[in-house]
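#onboarding

Welcome to the new folks! Below is a worked example of what a typical request in this channel looks like: someone posts a single protein sequence, and someone else replies with the predicted structure as tokens. Don't worry about understanding the tokens yet, we'll cover that in week two.

Example request:
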Amino acid sequence: MPIRTHRGRAAVYRRFWGWPLRSPKHLAAALVVVGAVATVIGLVLPEPPPSRNVAAGGRTTEREQPSQHSAVVPTTKRPPTISVPQAGPTPTAPDPAGVAIVEKWGEAWVNHPVGADRQQWVSGLRPLTTDEFLTELSTVDPVNAGNVITGAPAAVTSTAGTMVVRLPTDIGVLNVTVNKTPAGWRVAQYDKEG
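Example response:
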């Protein structure tokens, strides 16, 4: 029997769309049915072939002639690979110029007379330090720096562009990292042992 009035059609639609909201069981059943239908559609439909535009490497129209050289598109999808170096940088003999920079930096490190402000202390370290590390050093209170170097600097590790040099002070041993820059060896970091 056909529906002849708008009121009757609205009532039918309201009843149809309102069914899942009548109870939690109806809602769960409706969600299961929708999920099953979506799964079946996903399994039945084949995967679309790659478009001609992507395979050709650019936008082409029907009027344009395809180029004579076509790109080879692999049919299998492989996960991306990342090459990781198996070995670290090769160790080299310590450069005496780098060790000398650490010694000069250590002398500037412990040179903070009473009453000197932080900017004066950092300006003494500036010619021996990288610009990036100077921003960190500007937050260090010179009172917390050592007062005396208690031994000679000695290289712990050394590669072509980086060295870690051990510098003993009265507040403990500093492991100072120096990097080779276009301006020469510069201090890039220090860590206190212990």
